[in-house]
Each structure stands twice: as C-alpha cells, then as structure tokens.
C-alpha cells in the first residue's frame, strides 16, 4: 500500500535555503503543499549572502576608478578620490542582511516553515535536524544544498589563502593581493581589487582566462587585464609561506611574490559531505555532484535535487528555474523541465563579458558552415575620455539556416545587452531578423544589427 500524505509530517522538506531551495519551497507551498525548509547558515544562500549580489556591489565599487579618471575628458575636475573599505563593507553587509530578511519574510508569507539548522537524510522519507536531533517525515525531499569553494590543487601553506567566502569577511583592502584561478570568480574579483586600488596579480595555470568562452573574447580580456594588473598566465603557485609580515607565494618559474592576501578561486564542490546520501543509496559523480534526470529526480524516487549540487549549470537563474520546474512537476501536476542548452550569461570583469549560445569553435563543430560577423571598435565615450579600450562583438550564424547560434560581447554593459539579445536568440532569431531590426543610435549595441559582411577567417579562406 502506498503511503498517503497523512502519514507524513510534511509534503516537502527542502534542505538548503539558497536560490533553488527557496524558489521550490515557495512554489510548492503555493500549490498547497505543507513545506519545511532547513538552512544551516543564512537564508538566501550563496547568491545573496556570499556570491552574485555582494560581489556585484563590489564590482560597482571598483568601477568608480574608471569613472573618476574618464570624467576629466568631459570637463570635470575631481579631487583625488579616496576609497574607504570599511564604508563599502558596512553598507554592503547591511544590504545583504536586508535581502536575507526579505527572503525569510517571503518564505513565511508563502506558508513555508523555516528551520535554522542543518538537516541530513536518514532514509528516503526521513530528515534529521542536527541541532535538535528531531526527525521529520516527508513525502518528498528536495536537496538544494549548493556548493562550497575549494583550494585545489592543495599546496603547502594553502591555509594562508582565503576563498571567495573570505573576501566578504576582509576587514581592510589588501594593499597587494594574489588571485589564483582563471574562471569567472577569479576574473571578477581580480577586477574588483584592481579597481579598488590593490596591487593585483592574477595567476592562472592555463594560457588563457575563462575556459569554455570564445577564444577571441578570452584574448580581449587577457589584453585588457594585462593593462590593469599583473597578469601571469601558464603559471602555478608551488607554496605559500609567511614572510616579512606578509605572504610569500613561490611560483613554478622560481619567481616569488610578496602579498598581503592570497585569494584562491580555483573551483567549487557540491555540499554533500555528511548529508546521508549513502544511507539512501545515492551515489555522486566524479565531481561530487548528485546525478538527476531531466525532472531533477535522483536515483531514489522520493528524493529530488536542484541547483549547484547537481552541477548542471552553476548559476542562480538555473537553480531558480530547476527549483520552480521541480515544484510545478511534483506539486502542480504541470510537468516541466529546464532546457540547459541556451543560457545567456555574463562575467562581471571590467570590461564586462556577455554571452549567449555557442562559442566559435563549438559552433563550427555543431553547425557545420557558419558565418562570423565581427565588430571591434572604440566606444564613443573613449573619444573624450581618452581611455584606451575597445569593444568586441561577435555574431555567429549557421549558414544553412541563417540562425544566430552565438553572440559574444566584450565591453561596457555587455551583461545588460546580452539579456535582451538572449530573448531573440532563444526565439530562434535569424541574421535576417537582426538585420531588419532598426538600430538605436548612438549606442554600442547598434553594431549588432548593422553587421553586414562576414569576417574573413582562416576557416572561410580554407573553405574557399
Ligand atoms: P546555494 O545558493 O549555495 O544554497 C545552498 C544553501 O544550502 C546554502 O545556504 C547552505 O548554507 C545550505 N545548506 C547546505 N547544506 C545544508 C544542510 N545539510 N542543511 C541545511 N542547509 C544546508 N551565479 C550567477 O548566476 N551570477 C553571478 O554573478 C554569480 N556570481 C557568483 C559569485 C560567487 C563568488 C559565487 C561563489 C557564486 C556565484 N554565482 C553566480 C553562482 C550562484 O551563487 C549559485 O549558482 C547559486 O547560489 C546556486 O544556488 P543553490 O540553490 O544551488 O545553492
């Protein structure tokens, strides 16, 4: 006999109050489900507490340096600007606390019971609350525990370094900082610290930053960053040690750097340790993530997982969509799954990057013949500011169908632009659709609808 909802304390128990868990809990409660959510740290999760939101506030802070410098070309004289880390920290932390309160209130208003403690799985329908040792019986369990930063590979002295979590706890702006990593988190924080005035070294073992992004965008970022900071590519850190009241980083080429902080941003791992997965027979994959089907169901029929813990696309909007689709499917009788193929995304480096669709290499592999439309130009503002900067835009078009299969933007506001372009690309826009769109003048993004002639590339020459 199948168990009815009467035999359970709740219909849904959500482990983790981050982007995915909060959305799933609210939507399921909206369908009338009795929902409890456990959060062991702070409601809002990585994105709100120590990810996207506080990071973006710091990105804004770092970018004022360029604004002050550029203003002179437009007739402004600005007294030597001074930056006070303690003001930024206080105001940023207050905003995060406000948002945490909003998330908490929204959950309560939706009828979700929030339990501020760690939860682990005992069996396919039982949760144990670690703080109070209480058991809760749930018809469905949703694992939305996210991930945590790791310092990999492990090197001697690694304990001297901080991770992205530690950035939000720093009490002062480091005078000299070494950022290790080549992914978006390393790139973004290196940009922030350079903007705020730290002498910044960004060190990455690869030859280019941002693996997986379009190579020309990666090169453009590398060039811009080499102007803004000490960029060391193809290098690794061998060890860290205390020296002269600071930290000495010994590099593989024998060079060494004396810095005040080392930020290791080389990767993240799902939060599965001690969660009780082995008790229910859920095995994790090589990355430590929980395998799920298209509806986010694990190998155990009553247990689902969404967000970073499944390592599908580790971004907030994806965790939110997965949480929403799960709730629609399981509690709304509206089966829904998330299409992970087309994800518009931004990197908040300075200058910024916005991307939707394939990079050029992938487009060539998957679409056969493609046309590459490209514009590289100096933004209008630079004419007076005198700043030596360029914007790069690429539109990749599948020749057989005229469909736009990739758009890549490097430059100011790329994240804002790509969100709107993402609508067109998601709708299946063709190059002809881009061409008949009237330009907005004078803007940088008008280039996207005025690209007339495909670029001559080594591939087009080879194809004759
Ligand atoms: P999380 O938001 O990590 O939430 C999981 C929650 O579960 C946490 O609050 C944790 O405390 C809790 N938890 C874990 N285990 C337990 C347990 N056993 N019991 C109770 N609670 C538990 N994404 C973007 O889209 N844009 C960005 O600009 C961006 N910037 C980022 C910058 C940084 C520095 C970082 C680290 C991440 C960034 N991300 C960004 C990624 C984004 O934050 C994550 O993809 C998103 O938060 C994933 O949501 P989630 O619900 O899967 O997990």
Report how far apart the termini are.
69 Å
CATH class of the largest domain, named Alpha Beta
Which percent bin holds the helix content? 25-40%
CATH architecture name of the largest domain: 3-Layer(bba) Sandwich
Provide an overview of this structure:
The structure is a single chain. The protein is of the alpha/beta class and 464 residues long. The protein has 3 domains: 3-148 and 269-331, FAD/NAD(P)-binding domain (3-Layer(bba) Sandwich); 158-266, FAD/NAD(P)-binding domain; 345-456, 2-Layer Sandwich (Enolase-like, domain 1). 33% of the residues lie in helices and 23% in strands. The chain is built from 14 helices and 21 strands. Strands 1, 2, 3, 4, 5, 6 and 16 form a 7-stranded mixed sheet that branches. Strands 17-18-21-20-19 form a 5-stranded antiparallel sheet, sandwiched between helices. Strands 10-9-8-14 form a 4-stranded parallel sheet. Helix 3 (52-71) packs antiparallel against helix 4 (85-109). The N and C termini lie far apart (69 Å). The mean pLDDT is 96. Bound molecules: flavin-adenine dinucleotide (FAD). Flavin-adenine dinucleotide is lined by residues 15-21, 38-41, 45-47, 51-52, 55, 118-120, 144-146, 164, 185, 271, 275, 307-309, 314-317, 319.
């Amino acid at each position: 006999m199948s168990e009815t909802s009467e035999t359970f304390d709740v219909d849904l128990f959500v482990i983790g109050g981050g982007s995915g868990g909060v959305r799933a809990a609210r939507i399921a409660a909206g369908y009338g489900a009795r929902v409890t959510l456990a959060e062991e740290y702070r409601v809002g999760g990585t994105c709100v507490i120590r990810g996207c939101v506080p990071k973006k506030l710091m990105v804004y802070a770092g970018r004022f340096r360029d604004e002050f410098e550029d203003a002179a070309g437009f007739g402004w004289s600005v007294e030597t600007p001074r930056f006070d880390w303690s003001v930024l920290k206080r105001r940023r932390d207050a905003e995060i606390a406000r948002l945490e309160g909003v998330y908490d209130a929204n959950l309560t208003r939706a009828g979700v019971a929030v339990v501020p403690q760690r939860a682990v799985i005992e069996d396919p329908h039982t949760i144990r609350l670690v703080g109070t040792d209480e058991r809760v019986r749930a018809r469905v369990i949703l694992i939305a525990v996210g991930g945590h930063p790791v310092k990999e590979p492990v090197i001697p002295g690694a304990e001297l370094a901080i991770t992205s979590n530690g950035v939000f706890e720093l009490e002062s702006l480091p005078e000299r900082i070494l950022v290790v990593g080549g992914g978006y988190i390393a790139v973004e924080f290196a940009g922030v610290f350079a903007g705020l005035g730290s002498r910044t070294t960004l060190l990455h073992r690869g030859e280019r930053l941002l693996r997986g992004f379009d190579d020309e965008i990666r090169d453009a970022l590398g060039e811009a960053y080499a102007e803004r900071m000490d960029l060391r590519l193809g290098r690794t850190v061998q060890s860290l040690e205390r020296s002269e009241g600071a930290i000495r980083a010994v590099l593989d080429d024998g060079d060494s750097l004396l810095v005040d902080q080392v930020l290791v941003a080389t990767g993240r791992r799902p939060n599965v340790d001690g969660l009780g997965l082995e008790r229910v027979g859920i095995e994790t994959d090589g990355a430590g993530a929980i395998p799920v089907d298209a509806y986010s169901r694990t190998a155990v029929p009553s247990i689902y997982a969404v967000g970073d813990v499944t390592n599908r696309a580790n971004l907030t909007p994806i965790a939110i969509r997965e949480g929403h689709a799960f709730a629609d499917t399981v509690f709304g009788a509206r089966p829904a799954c998330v299409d992970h193929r087309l994800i518009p995304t931004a990197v908040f480096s300075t200058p910024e990057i916005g991307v939707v669709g394939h990079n050029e290499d992938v487009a060539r592999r998957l679409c056969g013949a493609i046309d590459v439309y490209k514009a590289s130009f100096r933004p209008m503002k630079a004419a007076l500011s005198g700043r030596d900067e360029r914007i790069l835009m690429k539109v990749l078009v599948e020749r057989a169908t005229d469909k736009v299969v990739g758009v890549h933007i490097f430059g100011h506001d790329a994240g804002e632009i790509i969100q709107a372009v993402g609508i067109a690309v998601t709708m299946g826009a063709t190059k002809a659709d881009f061409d008949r769109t009237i330009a907005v003048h004078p803007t940088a993004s008008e280039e996207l609808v005025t690209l007339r002639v495909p670029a001559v590339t080594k591939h087009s020459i080879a194809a004759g």
